[in-house]
From TrEMBL:
Cofactor: NADP(+)
One Pfam family cited in the UniProt record for this chain: GDP_Man_Dehyd
Source organism (scientific name): Brassica napus
Gene3D superfamilies reported in the protein's UniProt record: NAD(P)-binding Rossmann-like Domain, UDP-galactose 4-epimerase, domain 1
Protein name: GDP-mannose 4,6-dehydratase
Keywords: Lyase
């Protein structure tokens, strides 16, 4: 496993090779999440030294980055390291900034379940909104005390647009419909404020599309359910549709995967059923516990 202050993980092809010349250092919160794992792979391939902040918990939740694991004691190869911290603890954020001295900070950490945010609105606001403020202030004070420049990236959400009619673009006004949405909006405006007030090189970014790999599976299991259980939450957002005109014009991007193909890629029903069958055989034979994944 790993020590309390240095919990590294890494193993993607060429991602941690010692012959790659290190270019920059990055600090990533939310590194164990879906987007965090992809960002980490990308940064490692670019030659970055990546430091991730994770919360201490009884369950070691690093499944999404286990494939890029390298023992942290192998200093010549391990270019990703994990450290215990929490966005609610401002002092620990500043301490790690002083130790790591990153060139870039990516804030992806969040309580990101919209429905759950209605059950724990105060915690959601503390992590998503106030947590972003803690990190921004830690970055600002670290820069002021050490004469350094850091780029700061704040992860936003399409949920921030809420009930505004589609398509949504960079100029579309926000209309949050949940505690999570409102907290993300607050984090965004904190980011804008620190850019305008202190000259921090900060920006907010968001994507409507996500790759199917790493997305939670959860609609199978042998019991009957209604789709409503998974889809409906209070003040449900009606229609979120990003305006892709700018990326098409500037980057010459165009979609390669249609809606039906995307659904198949995300659900992979046949593969999931086969996996469940294999798992049942292994559990029944006593080779694995019911909660383990093959």
């Amino acid at each position: 496993m790993a020590s309390q202050d240095n919990v590294s993980r890494s193993k993607a092809p060429n991602a941690n090779d010692s012959h790659i010349a290190l270019t920059k250092g990055a600090l990533v919160t939310g590194i164990t999440g879906h987007d965090g794992s992809y960002l980490t792979e990308f940064l490692l391939q670019k030659g970055y030294q990546v430091h991730g902040l994770i919360r201490r918990s009884s369950n070691y939740n690093t499944q999404r980055i286990n494939h890029i694991y390298i023992d942290p004691h192998n200093a010549n190869k391990a270019r990703m390291k994990l450290h215990y911290a929490d966005l609610s603890g401002a002092s620990s954020l500043r301490r790690w900034l002083d130790v790591i001295k990153p060139d870039e900070v990516y804030n992806l950490a969040a309580q990101s379940h919209v429905d759950v945010s209605f059950e724990i609105p105060d915690y959601t606001a503390d992590v998503v909104a106030t947590g972003a403020l803690h990190l921004l202030e830690a970055v600002r004070s670290h820069m002021a005390d050490n004469g350094r420049n850091i780029k700061y990236y704040q992860a936003c959400s399409s949920e921030m647009f809420g009930s505004t009619p589609p398509p949504q673009s960079e100029t579309t006004p926000f209309h949050p419909r949940s505690p999570y949405d409102a907290s993300k909006c607050t984090a965004h405006w904190y980011t804008v404020n620190y850019r305008e007030a202190y000259g921090l090189r900060s920006s907010s970014w968001e994507t409507y599309r996500r790759h199917e790999t790493g997305v939670r599976r959860g609609l199978h299991g042998g019991n009957s359910h209604t789709v409503e259980e998974f889809l409906e939450v209070p003040t449900e957002v009606d229609n979120l549709k990003g305006d892709a005109s700018k990326v098409k014009e500037v980057l010459k991007w165009k979609p390669k995967v249609g809606f039906e193909q995307l659904v198949k890629m995300m659900m992979m029903v046949d593969e999931d059923l086969e996996m469940a069958k294999r798992e049942k055989v292994l559990v029944d034979a006593g080779y694995m516990e019911a909660q383990q994944q093959p």
